[in-house]
Amino acid sequence: MDIINKISENPKMWDIFTKKEEYNPLFSDRYERFPYYLSQHRNVMEPLVSRYLIENGYEPEYPDGKKFAVCLTHDIDVLRTSIKNCASKSLTSALKGDFKNAMQYSFHILKKKQHPYWNFKEIMELEGRFGAKSSFYFLALKPDERDYNYSLEEVADEIRYISEKGWEVGLHGGHESYNNLEDLIQKKKMLETILGKEVVGYRNHYLRFKTPDTWELLSKAGFKYDTTYGYTDCAGFRNGMCHPFKPFNLNTGKEIEIVEIPLVVMDCTLLRDYMRLDFKKAWELTKQLIDRVEQCRGVITILWHNTYMQEENLELYEKILKYCQEKDAWVTSGQEIFNNIWKNNLQ
Ligand SMILES: [Zn+2]
Questions:
Q1: From ligand 1's centre to the CA of 234, what distance in Å?
Q2: Hey, which residues does 260 pair with through a beta bridge?
Q3: From ligand 1's centre to the CA of 324, what distance in Å?
Q4: Which of 116, 136, 161 is the last residue of a domain?
Q5: Which helix (H) or strand (E) holds 292?
Q6: How far apart are CA 34 and CA 21, in angstroms?
Q7: What is the CATH number of the domain that holds 262?
Q8: Rounded to the nearest whole angstrom, what is the distance from the C-alpha of residue 173 to the centroid of ligand 1?
Q9: Is residue 35 within 8 Å of residue 96, measured between CB atoms?
Q10: Residues 17, 48: Cα–Cα separation, whole Å
Q11: Tens digit of pLDDT for each residue in 211-242?
């Protein structure tokens, strides 16, 4: 099915899908993002456009007859934390009676070089136990760039290991990349030199994104898919889609040569900075979103940072993996989802 044609037959769906409201907005937040609180389209917990497509005969297919897919992803922002930070976390865990974590943090202090966030192998082992794979998006920052915490050279072995095992390594663009073609090209090259092969997947740091310009830049830089498109301040379906799609540029009247696998759930949106849900509420919402994507035979993209793999945050992540396994979802990397779209001619 030509999904762009189908959606354009329905003006209400077309407006939600293209996100006309995000072109030249009156206001954006301090990271130049279009926030959910500014959107006219309030029903963000329903994948309205995807539901419309399914009701009109859209039939996505996944390997082994799976009903729906999970695009599992990690942004690697921070690998190092200070000894002071470790000590404070160790003490907090001990006070809460969580001696396993307290010991772990103390252990990191003693070993100095080892850090709790240097946990790629642990994440992969955990996912492997649930029959899942995922994508790791690495920053390619220089020491003078904002939020620099590690260099690609020092994680070169890990990057190659991740890729050899069949997980994906993609680029996590820096603060300004979403708006700068040269920067995108340069960072993609830096990562490809370390990885030894083409980088196809992308997500911008802080989910910074300008509709539709960032898609155009990513396409020009040679990325095959992006998975930035979700709100930072609220979980859900930013343009009503829970299927990967080619974005449509209202300024040029053309499709953009890139696939968007929209982001639906980010750990810090649920828990810490924005929605401020407790464990129970965060789980209830995530479960509902997974169920809705299953009903639409869609793809739910989940972002869990490597810094959210401790204590309750880890417990929640494991709960998500277990639930998706029980539902027999195809839980995999963005790259695999992208490959599947072409195999099944879904665009
Ligand atoms: Zn980031």
A1: 16
A2: 226, 245
A3: 25
A4: 116
A5: helix 279-295
A6: 9
A7: 3.20.20.370
A8: 8
A9: no
A10: 9
A11: 999 999 999 999 999 999 999 999 999 999 99
